[in-house]
Amino acid sequence: MFQTQQKIITNKYPAWKYLLLVVVTVIGITYALPNLFGEDPAVQISPAKSVTFDLETQNQVAEVLEMAGIPVKSSVFEEGRFLIRFEGTEDQLKAKSVLKEALGRKAVVALNLAPSTPDFLRGLGAAPMYLGLDLRGGVHFLMDVDMDVAVSKAYLRYVDEIKSVLRENKVRYLAVEMEGDTLAVKFKDIPTMQAGLAVLTETYSDRFSLKPVEETATPQVRLRLSDQTIAETQKFALQQNITTLRNRVNELAVAEPVIQQQGDRRIVVQLPGIQDTARAKEILGATATLEFRLVEERGDAYRAEKTGYAPHGSIVYQFRDGRPILLKRGVIVDGENVVSASSGIDPEQGSAMVNVTLDGAGGRKMLATTKKNVGNRMAVVFIERRVDTVMENGEKVKKRVTTKDVINAAVIRGQFGDRFQITGLDSPQEAQDLALLLRAGALAAPMEIVEERTVGPSLGQDNINQGFMSVIVGFILVLIMMAWRYKYFGMVANVALGLNLVIIVAVLSMLQATLTLPGIAGIVLTVGMAVDANVLIFERIREELRIKGTSIQKAIHSGYEKAFVTIADANITTLLAAIVLFSFGTGPIKGFAITLSIGILTSMFTAIVGTRAIINLMYGNKRVEKLSI
Amino acid sequence: MTNENHTTNINFMGQRHMALALSAVLIFASFAGLWMKGLNFGIDFTGGTLIELSYPDPVELPELRTQLANSGFGKAVVQHFGSAEDVLIRIAPQDGLNSAQLSNQVMDALAEATEDEITLRRVEFVGPQVGDELTEDGALAVLYALFGVLIYVALRFEWRFSIGSVAALVHDVILTIGVFAWTGMQFDLTVLAAILAVIGYSLNDTIVVFDRVRENFRTMREGTPVEVTNVAVNQMLSRTIMTSLTTLVVLLALFFLGGEIIHGFATALIIGVVVGTYSSTYVASAVALLLGVSKEDLMKAPKEEENTEAEEAELQRLFLEQEAKREAREAKREAKKGGQKIAQSELESKSEEDKEASLLAEHSSAVEKKSHVKKKQTKKRTKK
User: Fold this and answer.
1) Is A351 helix (H, G, I), strand (E, B) or coil?
2) Is the pTM value of this prediction over 0.80?
């Protein structure tokens, strides 16, 4: 029926496949290249809160370094911060101390290791792999925010407010108390309770679910925060804590800190390269609060700062950028009285503003003060207390440190009570920052360190060296085995394996995924397993060659063809396991899963397309008597 | 290695009952180890604090223990880590002492007792609740991985193979954990990661063998399932050995050069690779055979016949080519004779054919192609 016709297989690859390979190789090498260049010791200067750097700062920095006689390798101003590179660590350390002294509190001066990627590569967006904490050394904290406390504090904040609402509406109540996870408003008798219920429903039905309870001796209304409000409260508490942490981390002068939310109630803090972990823990564990004080308009703050003598009844404070200001001794309200703060736009002037809400007691005090002080200024002071370990005469001494910063001073336009606005802020960003600080200083939910992973710098370097060494040795051993077992074909597989390694490094660099020690282990394992595809193909080619009457070209062709399904099946299942690892893993496991997945995908490409291309070049379209396999 | 010129012919499957018995004994031993000794869980799972310190000179452990006991850390476990200079201190979570400050206190206590400069290499603190979560996540990860495999293999192959491969994986996981129980090596997060990697690796091995078993069921006209499987195992033997060796070689590099932290990880993988190579031959295939996998099961499976696919495609292409020519000729002739009506009807019948073809495509491309060809043949016959 059919004419059987032996088709001649020539093993030629279309030009586009070669082009693809060349392009992939070039891109791979380009993006893997930055990893070969080392790192420069550098100093990174970032602005403190509410400070922006300008030309003046730039000149100041250059001047300071010149005065100290420290040679600078290069200096760039990027994304609002300076990165100054030096030739050696000695210069770097010296520069850090003189710069810190000169710039004072308006800048965060941190040591950094800046990748010395050549400009032409940086222009392409190429950068070296991002090393995880276990490789570069540093601290990883997982902080857990106590949400129960956050919620119960949210309830407590309403106690005063509910009382004043009832008073305003002339409903007499006996008590407002927390009972379990509800707020119980108690009344003398049922009619009063009904009246109270009406008032409370009108005011609070959007935030609370209200339930009257008549049976008990004291009739009462029970208020329970709606789920939505609770969720908001928790989100708020988390955000508040993140802000607080961010401010504190600035104090630590870390070049690239990571502060991230994890899940609903956790915060991850990563401080690469930090040496003194004890101090880091102390600073992160500090407590913050705030105070509203009147500004002392008489007297010269600058002179008071210089002489150390402030006018009677006042104290010298400083803004974050270092400007002094005189404040009156009496505190109007403090952070405990702040219920909420949010940023917005002033409808009259169109400028940014912050809405502040105080609790009942705070509102009364504020009203009494503002009544008498219209036209004067009122300042917000942010206070942080912490225990700090400092070296004194060669000994470690624990010290209580309190920092007080004036974060805002504004004119009181008229009398106000529990709700007021701070207007005239320069930008929406400033308003947002101020609102965050006000909340951060207000009652924050307590947090606790639930996980800590610290890797000292010496161990980090050891890990890099050992990881690197095992990749190299493992790689070379596999090269030898393949060349020994499969001769020329083995050499081709080795080229593909090398390319595979380059592409893995390039992909990791491009993604800026974090490379950890388990990640390196993943690469090592990939090196071992990547050759499996080639082993399968080559064994199959050998098998085909054993079948009598099979031409060499046909053997190569069907070897690749038939092994492909097996390779695909095997790799997909391994990828499946890697994905499960990734979705369930934390920290170390994730790093391993990432490199393993990338390795599986790239090895499929290099081991199938890459080797085939070279083998076709070597044997394709030719008369071949014997294969070196 | 194996013979260069012909495939080995070792009767692997003949010993499958022995092998299954051996596996059963080993699994029993693993459970016994778990029951008698338990796993030495790392702080990732138990919670607690781990501190790695480095002294400039070798240190005596009893000395350190007294120093720690004097400062109220009597329950701390102290051991050398990699060398006589490096020390690992583990402190279990204690009531009221569940604080990250613990490491500072330990450091202070030790620093006071010695003149030497102690370098802090590493601190790990895991709160008890985080430890519980990691344990739960870890167990879930293993379960989900196994479940995913079960489904994938059942879809790709057949349920008996699926059971066989999962049995092999469970076997590997249990034996690896068993070794950790008997040796008392620490079981931490990286070991768990290694076990999941073992699942991936062993599966890889199993799939490769199954793939060949399936192929052989289709190509070998004769032979019992046991014989067919045996041939497949023999065919894949040199590949299995080669891949296991390359993987083992890099793992040994990792074990000896990768540093102390990666030790547990490398150990688990080495055990896993050895056990996995054995299990993909004996456990996976043996269980599939035990469940009575047969030629018919795989023939029924809507799968292409890989072996002859290339040839078939080739033949089919030739056939279609010829037929297209013939049809074109016929169409021309008929167009001359009967005008456009006939051409029209032929177009209709063609589109109907497409519909059917697309329905069949749901099964598999090869089956579809084949039936396509057959249909054309029958169609032509009826035409004639």
Assistant:
1) coil
2) no
Amino acid at B38: G
**Class of the CATH-defined domain B48-126:** alpha beta
CATH 3.30.70.3400-classified regions of chain B: 48-126
DSSP string, A532-559: HHHHHHHHHHHHHHHSTT--HHHHHHHH
Contacts of A474 in chain B (CB under 8 A): 249-251, 253-254
Contact by Cβ (8 Å): A333, A362: yes
* Nearest CA-CA partner of A420 in A438, A407, A405: A438
Cβ neighbors of B135 (< 8 A, separation 6 or more) are: B45
> Chain A: residue nearest B53 by CA?
A456
The CATH code of the domain at B13-40+131-300 is 1.20.1640.10
Alpha-carbon distance of A315 to A379, in angstroms, equals 12
Tell me the per-residue pLDDT of B328-350, one tens digit each, with 9 for 90 and over. Answer: 776 666 666 554 444 444 444 44
Calpha distance B172→A487 (Å, rounded)? 34
DSSP summary character for residue A607: I
DSSP A480: H
Interface subset of B 200-259, CB within 8 angstroms of A: 200-201, 203-204, 207-208, 211-212, 235-236, 238-239, 242-243, 245-251, 253-254, 256-259
List A residues 240-299 in contact with B (Cβ-Cβ < 8 A): 277-278, 281
**Sheet holding A338-345: strands in order across?**
A338-345, A352-358, A419-425
Q: What is the CATH number of domain A15-34+457-619?
A: 1.20.1640.10
For residue A255, the SS3 value is coil
CA A533 to CA B166: how far, in whole Å? 23
| CA angle, A574 then A579 then A584, to 5° | 130
- Which of A:514-533 have CB within 8 Å of B? 517-518, 520-521, 524-525, 527-529, 531-532
Q: How does pLDDT run across A379-433, given as a tens digit for each residue?
A: 988 777 665 555 566 555 556 667 788 888 888 888 888 888 887 777 777 787 7
Judge whether residue B188 has pLDDT over 60: yes
Give me the residue from B152, B193, B253 closest to A573, CB to CB.
Answer: B152
B268 vs A158 pLDDT, higher one: B268
Vertex A539: Cα angle to A536 and A543 (nearest 5): 130
Strands (E), chain B: 40-41, 48-54, 77-81, 83-91, 119-126, 186-187
Quote the CA–CA distance of B183 and B375 in Å, as a whole number. 65
Whole-Å CA distances, B184 to A311, B31, B40, B180: 72, 14, 6, 6
Does the pLDDT of residue B111 top 90, yes or no?
no
CATH code of domain A155-226: 3.30.1360
Q: Is the pLDDT of residue A499 over 90?
A: yes
Query: What span, in angstroms and rounded, lies between the C-alpha atoms of A129 and B151?
Result: 36
Q: Where are the domains of chain A?
A: 15-34+457-619, 40-116, 155-226, 286-454
Residue B118 DSSP code: P
Nearest to B27, CA basis, from B282, B200, B209? B282
The full DSSP string for B277-290 is HHHIIIIIHHHHHH
C-beta atoms of B152 and A572 within 8 A? yes
List where CATH 1.20.1640.10 sits in chain B.
13-40+131-300
Closest by alpha carbon to A230, among A143, A144, A149, A336? A149
On whether the A40-116 domain is CATH 3.30.70.260, my answer is yes
Could you tell me how many residues make up chain A? 629
Contact partners, residue B9, CB within 8 Å, separation at least 6: B234
Architecture of the domain delimited by A286-454: 2-Layer Sandwich (3.30)
